[in-house]
Design brief:
The radius of gyration is 14 Å and the shape is globular. The longest helix is centred in the middle third of the chain and has 18 residues. The chain has 117 residues and is α+β, with helices and mostly antiparallel strands. It starts with a helix and ends in a 5-residue tail after the last helix. Strand 1 and strand 2 form a beta hairpin. The chain is built from three helices and four strands; from the N terminus they run αβββαβα. The protein has a four-stranded mixed sheet. 38% of the residues lie in helices and 20% in strands. 32% of the residues are buried.
Length: 117
């Protein structure tokens, strides 16, 4: 029997999270993509705390843009906040999504903003 889209993503997500984890020195950059918005968090998994976050929800710079451009704005914003907080390198967690489109746009703009991964 074939997996549903959500079951497939959950299986991929478990496989990814087995291998990567964020520490206080190298936190995890997690991406969540809904149908309308995109969210990014920099997480320290040892303490379970979110260090930095950004989203396209209520973001004036992301208004009136298509979804890929919104993702680029969010990536740049999360990178600026992370660099300001003293975070230079992260581990990228695509959260079970394929690495193209909005996820790739967010990752590329985060790299341009100064994050290393």
């Amino acid at each position: 029997m074939a997996f549903s889209k959500l079951n497939r993503r959950a299986k991929i997500k478990r496989r990814i999270r087995k291998k990567i984890s964020g520490t206080s020195m190298v936190p995890r950059l997690s991406v969540f993509r809904s149908n309308k918005q995109i969210y990014a968090q920099v997480i320290d998994d040892t303490t379970g705390k979110t260090l930095v976050s950004a989203s396209s929800y209520n973001n004036k710079a992301a208004e009136k843009k298509n979804k890929s451009e919104q993702a680029a704005v969010v990536g740049k914003e999360v990178a600026e906040k992370a660099v300001k907080a003293g975070i230079e390198s992260v581990v990228f967690d695509r959260n079970g999504y394929l690495y193209h489109g909005r996820v790739k746009s967010l990752a590329d703009s985060a790299r341009e903003g100064g994050l290393k991964f």
